[in-house]
Design brief:
By secondary structure, the chain is an alpha/beta fold. The chain has eleven helices and 13 strands. α1 crosses α8 and α2 runs parallel beside α8. Bound molecules: pyridoxal-5'-phosphate. Pyridoxal-5'-phosphate (PLP) binds next to α3.
């Protein structure tokens, strides 16, 4: 049983679909064949439908979220990239971008805060926002203030650990991206990039054609339901199958929100504070939800903080039950653990983990 927030638990049907893909011979088809184009088209239509993505937004398959960071820097940034971040992934994004563009500006904020938007700035190039910061379990639920403050800018949003789990307000952003091994419940090896017509216009204006993954090359292939390189056809096959199985995102989103509240209540109210860290007689005063401000807590990644000893003890206890928790990440590596609240995780698994954590109370 795994609660790791990426690579994460895959949907249970994936096992059967892997065998189907082999049996159907899809693993050996040419990537410019009608069969492959058909699967690509169905997958893209399914994503539009189930995730409520606007008709005029383009969906591209790329190799990872990391690749999206670079595509944005290469193909959508004129000269300056502005990065709002409060954790490891947002910071990494800024570092990758710095190597590729003329200048960046970093605006960091605390884990219990929302970013402060200075409306006096005239940002009109690219604004980079990590909607769900997987490293510390925070989220920016409403990104519309960025659009309001900087109407000329291309708004790029990292939704790697929330796409497929929460409902997103697509019109508020121009570039959205994720990898499939997190909230989408699939094996690693593919990324999704979703672009508004404005983003495409900006790409045309910049006209970057220097790289194999220049956005215009990607786009020119995808309007024919083809790809700019031989893609991970198995991933496209799997995403098509899973997307046709799942409910509309509005339903998934409701369920995950309830579950997230369940988790936060579990650590705050229902059991004595920080019970999950009362292991082997270790006192756990400082242990509990890492994020105190309920307004910025993520729905899809629950972060629990504590002392190094406490965290070690909880991980040992769950490991003994064959349950994998997510390690802490970045500066919270040894002083937190994370629980994925992704749609592929089932009720019985959540109950089992809560049981094990409850039993760790040694009053
Ligand atoms: C995991 C993650 C990434 C990187 O994903 P890759 O698939 O390794 O490229 C980027 N951003 C966020 C927020 C993530 O959680």
């Amino acid at each position: 049983m795994t609660f790791y927030p990426g690579p994460s638990k895959v949907y249970p049907q994936v096992g059967q679909y892997l065998q189907d893909a082999f049996a159907e011979g899809i693993l050996s088809v040419n990537h410019r064949s009608p069969e492959c184009m058909q699967i690509t088209r169905e997958a893209i239509e399914g994503l539009h439908e189930k995730l409520n993505i606007p008709e005029d937004y383009f969906i591209y398959f790329i190799s990872s979220a990391t690749e999206a960071w670079e595509i944005i820097a290469q193909s959508l940034t004129r000269s300056k990239s502005v990065h709002y971040h409060n954790g490891a992934f947002g910071k990494k994004w800024a570092e990758y971008t710095q190597r590729l563009v003329l200048s960046i500006e970093e605006i960091s904020f605390g884990i219990n805060e929302l970013p402060i938007i200075d409306e006096n700035k005239a940002y009109d190039d690219v604004i980079c926002i990590t909607q769900n910061e997987t490293s510390n379990g925070t989220q920016i639920r409403d990104i519309s203030p960025f659009r309001t403050a900087f109407p000329e800018a291309i708004i790029a949003v990292d939704v790697t650990s929330s796409l497929g789990g929460i409902e997103l307000d697509w019109q508020q952003g121009d570039v959205w991206f994720a990898s499939v091994q997190k909230c989408l419940g699939l094996p690693a090896g593919m990324g999704l990039m979703i672009c508004s017509p404005r983003a495409l216009k900006r790409a045309e204006e910049i006209n970057d054609r220097k790289y194999y993954n220049s956005l215009l090359f990607i786009h020119e292939n995808f309007i024919k339901f083809q790809t700019h390189y031989t893609p991970n056809i198995l991933s496209i096959y799997l995403i098509n199958k899973i997307i046709s199985d799942i409910s509309n995102i509005s339903i998934i989103s409701e369920r995950l929100k309830k579950q997230a509240n369940g988790w936060y209540n579990f650590f705050e109210n229902n059991v004595p504070q920080a019970s999950a860290c009362f292991v082997s007689g270790i006192q756990a005063k400082a242990c509990g939800t890492l994020i105190q401000n309920p307004l910025v807590r993520a729905d899809t990644v629950i972060a629990i903080g504590g002392s190094e000893e406490q965290i070690k003890a909880v991980k040992a206890l769950t490991k003994a039950q064959n349950i994998t928790l997510g390690n802490g990440y970045g500066s919270w590596k040894n002083t937190s653990y994370r629980i994925a609240n992704f749609p592929a995780i089932e009720d019985f698994e959540i109950e089992k983990l809560k049981d094990v954590l409850r039993k760790s109370i040694t009053n």
